[in-house]
Specification:
By secondary structure, the chain is an alpha/beta fold. Helix content is 50%, strand content 10%.
């Protein structure tokens, strides 16, 4: 079966040329990175959309999660949130809906001109009634439905297996399991004593994904949910499983990403990122956060951006936006806007380390010149969110300098005296 990985082994496919052009990188280099499993372009064969390359040689990308829940279900609002995220620069949208008509909600989200991901086990739980009533056939059927509907990447918690359950029991964590997918699989294994079907029948899963060239995002079901749990054993057992599964995916010609933690103390981020990269053969790494403290709910987006920036500097490729409402409520549009902006900031910090000619390619050099020249319009056009900056600047009127130092503007004083 032809997949992008296989095509890249013998040439430079059209999708790679198009994604490389957007990325302003060499298409042959990108093609080689995809063939080696170090980069992906999540693109279901059934659906055309704006392509984003993720991984080696590419800029750091941002995903934004949207979706209904059992407590609040307004599909029209979720589409508005997705549109807001894309307007703010998101590169991908994940639909995490668990409330309402899931197939219809997904159909509308798939009309957006962007990469779309889902977590099929959420729908499997809804169809079955509870996690304990899911069987392998149902789970594979839901996965097949998502592929056929045109979803580009699926988060599947294949690395949560009986070994991780054993590690979780042997080295318990305060927060237990905080990944929803991880929790469903853990509950299923604990109740039946049987292996996770996604791990046991991984080759069959790969066959389903290869049909539509859907990317697998190997979920981190054992990601720690608190600083105090970050060094517990279950997470590391899962990383090793994910490394093995990443190699099998590559052998089967199925593009894959690895998902990483979670809640991680700042001094453990570099180690975790590098370890996951090494065990997975340098597969693209997709991170939620990581959050670097647990005691600032309401500002978790800032905590996540600090962790995301450090992770991106150390090799993370894809950051999942954390919104100000993390741990508190389903995000509204303002939360999505704010969360996306700070996630883009973290990605930008990562890019400053990845670009060959970093200060010019990232706009940093141009901004320095505009500031030196007190050229406000130029500053707003270079700024990531210039309209916002302009509003703040104009609060105190149309000044040559700004109201911070006013007539004692250091830039003006030195410019006029040398
Ligand atoms: S007034 Fe102060 S803060 Fe404002 S541009 Fe001049 S030096 Fe910078």
């Amino acid at each position: 079966m032809q997949t992008l990985i296989r095509e890249c082994k013998s040439g430079v496919p059209e999708n790679v040329i198009s994604a490389a052009k957007r990325e302003k990188i060499d298409s042959e280099k990108l093609s080689r990175a995809i063939a080696a499993g170090r980069a992906v372009i999540c693109a279901n064969k059934r659906r055309e959309h704006k392509l984003s390359a993720i991984g080696e040689g590419c800029s750091v990308k941002v995903n934004v999660n949207i979706g209904t829940s059992g407590a609040r279900c307004d599909p029209a609002l979720e589409i508005k949130k997705a549109q807001c995220a894309l307007d703010e620069g998101a590169d991908a949208i994940m639909d995490l809906s668990t409330g309402g008509d899931l197939e219809a909600i997904r159909r509308d989200i798939l009309k957006l001109d962007t990469t779309v991901g889902t977590v099929p086990i959420y729908e499997a739980v809804r169809r079955a009634g509870s996690a304990l009533d899911i069987d392998a056939d149902l789970l594979f059927n839901v996965i097949r439905d998502h592929c056929r509907q045109g979803v580009d990447f699926l988060t599947l918690h294949c690395g949560v297996n009986l070994e991780t359950l054993k590690a979780l029991r042997a080295d318990p964590r305060v927060m237990g399991v905080v990944s929803r997918g991880g929790a469903f699989h853990t509950a299923m294994m604990a109740s039946t004593g049987e292996e996770n079907p996604l791990y046991k029948e991984f080759d069959y899963l790969l066959e389903i994904l290869a049909e539509d060239d859907v990317t697998i995002s190997l979920g981190d079901g054992m990601r720690p949910g608190a600083m105090v749990d970050a060094a517990k054993r279950a997470k590391s057992v899962e990383y090793l499983n994910l490394g093995e599964l990443a190699q099998r995916s590559l052998n089967a010609g199925v593009m894959r990403m690895i998902e990483g933690p979670g809640h991680i103390p700042v001094n453990q981020i570099a180690y975790n990122v590098r370890m996951i990269k090494e065990v997975s053969g340098y597969a693209p790494l997709y991170l939620l956060g990581p959050l670097v403290t647990d005691i600032i709910p309401g500002y978790d987006h800032v905590s996540g951006a600090i962790g995301g920036a450090i992770a991106a500097l150390n090799g993370a490729d894809f950051l999942c936006m954390v919104s100000p409402s993390e741990h508190l409520a389903l995000p509204d549009i303002d939360d999505i806007r704010e969360g996306t902006r700070v996630a883009k900031l973290a990605a930008h910090v990562g890019d400053t380390e990845r670009m060959d000619d970093k200060w010019f390619e990232t706009g940093e050099a141009a901004m320095a010149e505009a500031r030196r020249d007190l050229d406000w319009e130029q500053q707003f056009s270079i700024a990531m969110y210039g309209e916002h900056a302009k509003k703040i600047h104009e609060r105190d009127g149309d000044l040559e300098t700004c109201s911070m130092c006013g007539d004692l503007c250091a830039i003006k004083i030195v410019r006029d005296s040398i």
